[in-house]
Amino acid sequence: MSEIDQVWVLFCATLIFMMQAGFMCVEAGITRSKNNISVAIKNISDLSVSVILFWAVGYGLMYGTSYDGLFGTSDFAFEKLDASGAYVQFIFQAMFCGTAATILSGAVAERCAFHSYLIITAITVTLIYPVFGHWAWAVDAFGDPVGWLKVAGFYDFAGSGVVHAVGGGIALAAVIILGPREGRFLDSGQPRRFNGSNLPLTMLGVLLIWFGWFGFNGGSALGVSAEVPALLLNTIVSGASGVLTGLGLSWIITRKSSVFYGMNGGLAGLVAVTASCDLVGVREALLIGCVGGCIAYFGDKGLEKLRIDDVVGAVSVHFFAGLWGLVAVAVFGADALGTGFASQALAQALGILVLCLYAVGIPFVLLWALNRVIPLRVTQYIETIGQNVGEHGANTDLNELFEVMQRQARNRDLKERAPQSPFTEVGQIGLFYNSVLFELERSFGHAEKQQSDLADVLEQKNALLESVLPKRIAARMNEGADQIVDQVTDATVVFVDIVDFTEYSARVSPEESITLLRNLFGRYDTVIQRYELEKIKTIGDSYMYVSGVTRDQADHCAIAIDAALELLFQTRQLGLSMEHDLRVRIGVHSGPLVAGVVGDLRFVYDLWGTTVNIASRIEEAGKPGKISVSQSVIERIGTEFTFERQARVRLKGIGPTVLYSIEGRKQSMTVKAPSRFSWRGTDAGSS
């Protein structure tokens, strides 16, 4: 290798190194903010592990003196190499190895433990990648092929199979063993997309990877030659066609040009052309990229159907598109190789079969066995709070602000102030938030002074009424109404009941049982007040509220369901803090009812009618941890929420009834904030 060739290959190695930054940006931007620091740490760690282990073991297995074309037997942990060209070869191939290893990071993000990730990286760079690389690329001192696959005619110019399909295959095995992220798939199987922390950062990462790919394919020529410009042109054309294919497919199918499938289509096009970029022309490169973009789209959808959770789409981009790249060698490059389509297709098919067995089957068995000894996945608690804090203690300004807000909500004490700084966005939010708190305190002071000036008798009367009745009803009684009766044509009643509370209270002291109810129902009260709904009563471990009674609320049913979803969240948060499996059943029904103030000694604003009875029966028959609703509720809110049918059940005193489970709001819908409404119902006392 001449000096100018060495300079070119070293320059290309630095471009490939830049791809590591690109992978980090892609993965950190597409994962949630609570895990993006963890992803970044994994990327720099796998690069470091790859370089050291490739020097110690991998390079010798891949390019050492061949043992019957199976693996290398020399140059392990070398002190020095014979020639400067050998150093160039090692640096260049070390960057290839790092690329194969880092493909895994995005696929297993948000649930793979850090120590497990390093173990999988070590398996990749010491056992899987270098051995298969020896089979496909190893040559002797005279440049003649010695790897048994290469001898059999298998061809992969720059690594569609050796690098990308191998890395993607290991990622496929890992995500199957790990399982999907919590909440990624609903019970019905419907997939749920999580919002990435920074999509512009992801797109920057795609461009960095694309930029580095010039070194990937251009450097594989191993020198400056006349074919390099054609290699680079094929690379950029295939990537561009993949981007446009991903965008076009997503628009045709969903009427939206997806950022996710646009970027993955481009990467799949780059992966696919890598095996044959030295054999094909520009038109073939464009077609290869188009097919790669299609594979990235439909491959990802297929994995979703199988409930396989690949966070960044690494399997469809690198494994599926990489295999297509190997097939494309026979389809478009057989003439250039002078082998003929049939013989080259047979050689490529052999390589693909061996790759699938060795890069998917072997890692799957190893990871399955390893997972039985050392769990590869983080605990549910760490997955909930995020790996940034849970595994690395990497707190953020935004997380600190949230912690202050949570303490204020929990302790109901607004004296604590948020961290503030004029030099960061979160610090500026804290600054203004503290200003709002200061004004609130001033407003509270004025209100307290004004209240102290009221007559003692009126103050006691108002306090008495408001302590036992909804404020709006108490106001009507203070205005002189001697009877409160509201006949409502359409309202929504919600029953909430704690599952297995009787068993829990039998195991703990009465103080602990009351503390649980007080903490849980206190959280519920906060939610109900924020949505401006009416809490009717609590009976033991049951909680009841209603929407659409004292106000004319056209979307009362949707507001009631929004509040119920938040009650499920609050229940789970309290359970996590107690390390107790705390669950509730929620029953919801909409329809006409009658409400009014009952009694003279102790006032109660009560509800009665068939709607109340059905809601309570639905709660009894519902599933724990679910919001069970009737058909009338689905007819009101079915277009705004995702739901699934439970089963036909027999409700006591009602008869056979079909129940549904509300899973959450649809992605395209936004939660409607409560707004001011006019009075509803007829005051029988004033009529």
TrEMBL record:
One MF term in the entry's GO annotations: adenylate cyclase activity
One GO BP annotation of this record: intracellular signal transduction
Matches recorded under SUPFAM superfamilies: Ammonium transporter (SSF111352), Nucleotide cyclase (SSF55073)
Entry's transmembrane regions: 6-26, 47-66, 86-109, 116-137, 157-178, 199-216, 228-252, 259-276, 282-299, 311-334, 346-370
Subcellular locations according to the entry: Cell membrane; Membrane
Keyword flag Cell wall biogenesis/degradation: no
UniProt name for this protein: Ammonium transporter
InterPro entries in the record: A/G_cyclase, A/G_cyclase_CS, Ammonium/urea_transptr, Ammonium_transpt, Ammonium_transpt_CS, NH4_transpt_AmtB-like_dom, Nucleotide_cyclase
Organism: Roseobacter ponti
Gene, per the UniProt record: amt
GO cellular component: plasma membrane
Family: Belongs to the ammonia transporter channel (TC 1.A.11.2) family.
Residue ranges annotated for the Guanylate cyclase domain, each copy included: 492-619
Keyword terms of this UniProt record: Ammonia transport, Lyase, Membrane, Nucleotide-binding, Transmembrane, Transmembrane helix, Transport
Record Pfam families: Ammonium_transp (PF00909), Guanylate_cyc (PF00211)
Predominant location category: membrane
Signal peptide: none
